[in-house]
Amino acid sequence: MAERLVVIGGDAAGMSAASQARRRRPANELQIVAFERGRFTSYAACGIPYMVGGLVEDAQKLVARTPQVFRDRFQIDARTGHEVVAIDTGNRTVRVRDLSEEREFDEPWDHLVVATGAQPLRPSIPGIELEGILGVQTLDDGLAVERALEGRPESAVVVGGGYIGLEMAEALVMRGLRVTLVEMAPQPMRTLDPDMGALVADGLRKAGVELRLEEPVEAFEGQGGRVEAVVTSTGSLAADVVILGLGTRPRSDLAGEAEIPLGETGGIITDRRMRTPVDGVWAAGDCVETFHRVSRRPVAIALGTHANKQGRVAGMNLGGEYATFPGVVGTAISKICDVEVARTGLNEREAREAGLEFETVRVDSSTRAHYYPGAEKMTTKLLAELGSGRLLGGQIVGGAGSAKRIDVLAACLWNEMTVDEMQGMDLSYAPPFSPVWDPVLITARKAAEQRRGDE
Q1: Which of 14, 203, 320, 337 is the most exposed place for a label (fewest CB within 10 A)?
Q2: Catalytic residue positions?
Q3: pTM
């Protein structure tokens, strides 16, 4: 008799796990059913701001595989509009709510993959439930923003200056709205150090976004159940639409209620094979806690890159192979208006919290040879551990062609290189792509020189 795999969550991690398991075990050995509460499976959530901004004209272009494709090509029973509301690890069943028919039923499993993702933070602020206040996490959320824009609103307030908040601010500017971004920190993009975040702030202002920094939101106001204003510590801002960009947390409540252990970050605890401590239960994606290879501490980072890899590892193991997920270094990249932004490893705050002592180097350079047309300014910052010179983190802010260099720094972090070792790397050079000394090498050299000067 075939075993039964149930997957909770139909996006990156869940469907990667299901697909990898199917490639290794045919349907007569392993039946697979995946439950997704939304309307879409396997979609590019990172593309939502570009859909809202009009760069992606059709939401279906963000969908990699539909439920029908999973059913026909992979013999995976992918059911959208089905929300798992409870897990029973003793009887090995999940309680499923069919949202279209408003009925519930129990589904048995031999193996369970929890891939419930992350959820946007919605703080307990007066008026938070007013219509027109929207989070952006799923493709359904993105379409809700699209519907809100059909009424041709004039003003929008984005609350929070993280990646989603800034990308959505750009998208709303592209749609012709008057956009204000409210952030309680001194600078946007708190995953960067403040001096690098200030460069991002300059780019936002140039694009027409009004920044309200160090202004906590105190309330939302409206009439007839719809938002009309955002009240901050300094006054009231008119708002036809409000976008929450306050970050996310692991959507792990379902697992926690089933006594599947959660870690200090709120994410589900797994081993390197993506197994939880509960027999037969696996977890992957934004809902899990993972290991940071630089700080050596647990982290919860919501990124599709990690989710796909973790889902793949879980599915390979479910299919009978042996695979492990080796952890993360915290690499992320974005484009905010005309500014490219990237970071990897630890920023100054994170390094201090990890108990590390370090020094920093920041270098202004250009993306190409200075004489070549289209050369853009860029700033590179490195953190190096005192004593050893080990690279701890890097940040890049600049024009077109700057941010993807973060991958060089991520590779250096992955292999625990020192800035002394980095300065001699054989990186490519041609005037259309780089100065003869690439900014990464210049910054590593400056860090190495500074370290030798301190010895």
Answers
A1: 320
A2: 46
A3: 0.94
